[in-house]
Amino acid sequence: MSRHAIVLSILLCLLCAVHTAPAQGSYLTIGLGYALGSGTQILGAAQGPTSTEGVYGSLGEGLKVNLAGGHMFTKSVGGELGLSYWSGNSFEWTSDEGSSRIKRSVSGSGFIFIPGVVFSTEMQPVAPYGRAGLILGILKVTDELTSSDGYAATVEETGGVAWGYQGAFGLLVSTGGLADFFAELTITSVTYSPSQTELTKLTYGGQDMLGQVANKTITLEESVPNGSEDKDLAVRRPFSSIGLAMGVRIPF
Residue 228: which pLDDT band, with cuts at 50, 70 and 90? Predict the structure, then answer.
């Protein structure tokens, strides 16, 4: 079963498990979405025999699984706390470096917390709404390398907290039943600055070589001493996106 099919099955099971509850201003939303990258930056460079081509994108592009709880303080204004898992697409390219051909793959993933404010209308049965919130993210960037001469390596960028904001505009369709349905457009601006990189895999010809590396973890800082072997300059990873999401809103 594909990853997308598993996620959809989980969402359907959660929906079926919900019993009827009186509307009291509080609600739970479960959604699934997909986003395209925005605010793209250079992720790498594909070096060919005669030229080098930049690889551009945002690691926020990909599948989003969303869960949120909220409470409407009035008919028009409420608060919401969201949790989203981002499974980013992989950006792949190859480079010719001497007699070796290098294949690279970079992707991002992680959990995003979104505390926000909701503004809703009282229209029925289709109610437009908006949401604005901050973003706090626990993210990871995975950089994988394989070479034609037998080397393979994986480096993970972790640590630190991603910051940003998200705005959304959506339509809530009332069904009068257990759950209402929604569809929304989201605009997300996030930049992630990891605090360290760690070499988690190194093989040659299928043999593990990781134990032979002295400095597997490199600390990333804004300023580093010249010649440092366990520190490097901080990087900025783009995770901004524009996406669509659909799901159910369950009052309780």
Answer: confident
